[in-house]
Each structure stands twice: as C-alpha cells, then as structure tokens.
Task: structure prediction
Amino acid sequence: MESQAAVAMVDQLRHTFNSGKTKEESWRRSQLQNLLSLLVEKEDAICDALKNDLGKHPVESFRDEVGPLIKSVNFALKGLKKWMSGKKADLPLAAFPASASLVPEPLGVVLIISSWNFPFGLSVESLIGAIAAGNAAVLKPSELAPASSAVLARLIPSYLDSTAVRVVEGGVSAGEILLQQQWDKIFFTGSPNVARKVMTAAAKNLTPVALELGGKCPAVVDCLTSSWDQQVALKRILSAKFGTCAGQACIAIDYILVEKKFSSTLVELLKNGIKSMFGENPRESNNISRIVNQRHFSRLSNLLDNPTVKNALVYGGSLDEDNLYIEPTLLLDPPINSGVMTEEIFGPLLPIITLEKIEDSVEFIKSMPRALAIYAFTKNEEFKKKLQSGTSSGSIVFNDAIIQYVADTLPFGGVGECGFGRYHGKYSFDAFSHEKAIARRSYIVDFWFRYPPWNEHKLQLFRSAYRFDYLGILLIILGLKRS
Ligand code: NAD
Result:
C-alpha cells in the first residue's frame, strides 16, 4: 500500500465515521449479521485457506476459528442493545437532586494489526468488537498466512460496508505505512518487538493501544492418582499443545512442571497419548498442523539443535523440512538456560521440568517472565490457592487449557510483557469504546459556600464535606454537628 492511498483511505473512513452512520444501532447490527453470514456461508473457503497456510484440519479450524467467531457474533448481537445503553452511576448526596450515567461512545477510526496463527479468529474477534462499538476499522492480517489474508481481503468487502470497514494486505512495509496514519485506537496482536514499534508510532498522536503478545505458558501437573483424571488431563494437555496449531498459539502450553517422582509416569502417559491422538506416525495423519514457514521451521529446529537439548529428548524429534512438519517432541529436563526454556517455543516441542515438590512450581513460575496463561492440573485446593495468589498471569485455568479463549464472559489479555488491554465478549465492545461520564444536575439546591469570596468558615465546611461526604455539610448547616 502506498502512503497516499493510506491517507485517502483513512480520510474516507473518517468521513464515514463523522457522518454518524456507524454509530447507528441498525448499522452495527446489519454489519454483525453480515459477518455471521460470511462465517456460515464461507466456512469451506476459510477452512481451505487455513489448510493451505498452516495445514490445519478442518475440524480444528472450525473448533478454534469459525465456531468461536460464530458464537462471538451471536453474543454481540444479543448484548448490543444493552451494551449501547450504558449504565447508571451514583453522585454524592450533595448533588441531590441529580442523576449520572456512563454511556459508551465509539472511538472513531481504528486499526487492527493481526497475527498469522489464528488468522481469522484473532482478526475477526477484534473486528466484532470494533463494529459492535460503532467504529470504522481497518484490518491488516498477517502476510505469513497469505491464503487466509487473501480470503479476508476478498470476502470482507463483499459482506461488509466498504465505506467503513477495509482490509489492507501486506507485510512490514504495509504495517509501517498504516502506523504513520492517525488512528483512534490501534489493536495489535503479535510479537513484543513489533509491539514496541506500534507503541512508538502511537505515541506521536497519543493514540491508545491494546497489545496482545505472547510468552511462555506453564502447565503444572500434580500427581493425579485416579486413572480417569490422568486420562482426561492428558488429553487436554496434548490437545492444548500439539492439537492446537501444533503449539503455535500464544496460550499453548509452553512447558510442563511436574514432581520428579511422577515424571516418568507422566512421560509414558504423554507418549501413549500422542500415539492414540495422532497415530504411530503423526506425519501421516491430517490431525497435526504444519509450521507456518521456513523461517519458523529453522527457528524451531535450531532450538533442538543443541547437544544438551538433544540429551533431554525422550520422544519425537523428527523433522521434515519439505513438509514443514515437526513431530510432537518431549524433552525431559532440558537446561533452564537453553533456548527451549528462555524463548517462547511456539511449536510442537514440549519441555518437562522436574521439581522436588509441586509447590516449588510457584517460585519457578515467578522466576520466569510473566505468562499469558498458567495451567494447573491438580485437585489440591490449597495448592490452587497458592498458585492463584502467588503468581501473576493474564489468566489461570485449573484442570484444562485453552478453554479461557472461547469464554465470552472472561476477558482475554495479558499482563506485564504479555501485553495489555483485553477483549472477547463485552470486553471487545469496551476495548473499542470510550465510556463517557454524564452528570445531570438541577437548580433546586445550591450550596452558597462553593463560591468565592473565601473565608475560614467556608474552609471548615469543605473540610467536613470531604471528610464526611456532603452529608457532613448538611448536618453542619442544620446545626446538628460542629467540626
Ligand atoms: P509479528 O509481530 O511479527 O507480526 C504481527 C503483525 O505485525 C503482522 O501483521 C505483521 O505484518 C505486522 N508487522 C510486522 N512488522 C511490522 C512493523 N514494523 N510495523 C507494523 N506492522 C508490522 O508477530 P507474529 O509472528 O505474527 O506473531 C507471533 C507472536 O504473536 C508470538 O509472540 C505470539 O505469542 C504472539 N501472539 C499473541 C496472541 C495473543 O492473543 N496474545 C495471539 C497470537 C500471537
């Protein structure tokens, strides 16, 4: 995209926004309905694109992208009227008679820059919030999922109002040109390095940003004794790691923490679980996604290409560069200073770190950069409390993984290095709204001491007022109280 074209596009979107069209409930509703039609009618095109870009199985694509988006659009359509109407607020007694409310207003023209691993899920989820909140929006999908980006660029203009919603395809240079424009919010999903560039560009115009970044998400696995619990936990762990874009997910399990005495049992369970979920030769099954491109394949193979990491290999480890395939791989106690433990893995390699006591996991997690999500498979209530209060993360999930992503009622977002800002469900609407404070007063009651000329008595009245709320003043005025 040329710079001039970007300027013209943003001008046109601002013109639409200023016309008030996008603020109308009917417009928001029709756009969300159209988005719903797109998702339902073009499911095959979406799943084909995901197969091309990432080798995702259509069922996985529906479970993780199309399905959650359909649910999100329906949730927004259902909640829209209530969300738009705002809420009542209290005013101090001294303002009586008065009323107050918080009324959401759209921010304006917003930019959404998105990542490649869930190219529909991530970009359309935020677009739902932008539209529901009444904004004009530009979406820039990632160039690393080109088939998905092309489908978005082709379908969005044919379903949505192009005077208010646009898709700009392209990579770094398109992103840079977009960042030079003036936006009312930038919603970014991606890496910390690019996030810094986004914030720097946003600072020029004091544009608010939301940053959805990554990190290393631990899964603490307690010594589960019942075989049913073990089997259920196992399936959830394997699905959250290898069965969700082959571990290329910001909330994928990055590594496991387990007590030494349970580690060999766990490794055996994981090995058998991989075989029953993905077959003896997972490469032959269509159930595991491929690595997105050569660069990420090399990054992952370099992580493995280290003698101390190779020594830790207990399962998998085979690579097929031509097919961008990496076998589900288990590493038992790789060195803590090796790449697999210092970098976000973002792929199907799973380090298992052993600890003397499972309670040590609290300190271990605290010694690492903050996690976007923490998972803990345990039935020990005391331990759950310790983990919850002793660590910080975007979310914490007990006895499952990834499910927090599809809960409309939970905000999705990070803390610390994992980013800031949150979305999903009503939180997406809030992310693209400004809650305007509205106070309405009457002329019936007026406190004479609010106004100059000042004297000591007025100061005393103010002291009481701020200490005891205005009720104190009323009492003083009525002669019932002296301060
Ligand atoms: P990335 O930062 O390389 O790219 C993200 C987007 O930014 C892409 O659309 C890209 O084209 C664009 N971009 C790149 N350079 C730019 C620049 N200079 N100016 C403007 N735009 C630019 O990240 P990625 O490889 O797409 O994603 C991987 C990272 O994203 C991982 O760290 C992962 O954890 C994180 N992630 C987080 C979430 C989340 O929801 N928290 C979801 C998915 C991925």
In short: The first strand starts at residue 87 and ends at 89. Residues 113 and 188 are 5 Å apart (CA to CA). The chain has a mean pLDDT of 95.
